[in-house]
TrEMBL record:
UniProt-recorded name of the protein: Two-component system, response regulator RegA
GO cellular component: a single term: protein-DNA complex
Biological processes, Gene Ontology terms: regulation of DNA-templated transcription
Entry-linked PROSITE patterns: RESPONSE_REGULATORY
SUPFAM superfamilies: CheY-like (SSF52172), Homeodomain-like (SSF46689)
InterPro entries tied to this protein: CheY-like_superfamily, Homeodomain-like_sf, HTH_Fis, Sig_transdc_resp-reg_receiver, WalR-like
Organism: Rhodobacter aestuarii
Residue span(s) of domain Response regulatory: 7-121
Pfam families: HTH_8 (PF02954), Response_reg (PF00072)
Keyword Transcription: yes
Length: 187
């Protein structure tokens, strides 16, 4: 394997998001392997010498922290970025203790994730230029945050946002269609 060979493990239980991440990093020259469950991710971690990993904290089956632990214990551990829609200080500290390089809240762009790969303990996080956030982006962030708070219950999210359930469903469908091919990672 050449020194500039980059092998990435993507651990994400949302198939659409996993595919988006895999495509974004494949375009950046990474060899990408993906898993949707903790058990499968650990199997891949034991089989390949990953240089980088993106691990979702909350998986439908298992925990991303178990994967971080296995990767962090390797003789030559990869740069690990933990992504989550459920950020908390305690899980961030635990992820870093287990070997994560950085902990990012969703949504995060592929550029932000790649910048986070370069972070090391004790270093200041490199500056990430914040994009201009428009009204639609702010609305989308509010929708995502509310979805996470309601456990992704569409009806309850719509109620809390004061909109009709069908309107919310249309916005979600339109955003997903618009995001096809883009590198923004959202849950």
């Amino acid at each position: 394997m050449s020194e500039d060979h980059r092998c990435l493990l993507v651990v994400e239980d949302d198939p659409h998001l996993a595919e988006t991440l895999a495509a974004a990093f494949a375009r950046r020259g990474y060899e990408v392997h993906a898993a949707t469950r903790e058990e499968a991710a650990i199997g891949l971690a034991q089989r390949y010498a990953f240089t980088h990993a993106i691990v979702d904290l909350k998986l439908a089956e298992g925990s991303g922290l178990g994967v971080v632990k296995v990767l962090g214990e390797k003789e030559d551990p990869p740069a690990i970025v933990v992504l989550t829609g459920f950020a908390s200080i305690s899980t961030a500290v635990e992820a870093i203790k287990l070997g994560a390089t950085q902990y990012l809240a969703k949504p995060a762009t592929a550029r932000e994730i790649e910048t986070a790969f370069g972070h090391r303990a004790g270093m200041a996080m490199p500056e990430i230029e914040a994009p201009q956030v428009g009204v639609k982006a702010q609305e989308w962030e509010l929708i995502q945050r509310t979805l996470a708070e309601t456990g992704f219950n569409i009806s309850e999210t719509a109620r809390r946002l004061g909109m009709h359930r069908r309107t919310l469903a249309r916005k979600l469908a339109a955003h997903r269609a618009a995001a096809e091919g883009q590198e923004t990672v959202e849950e």
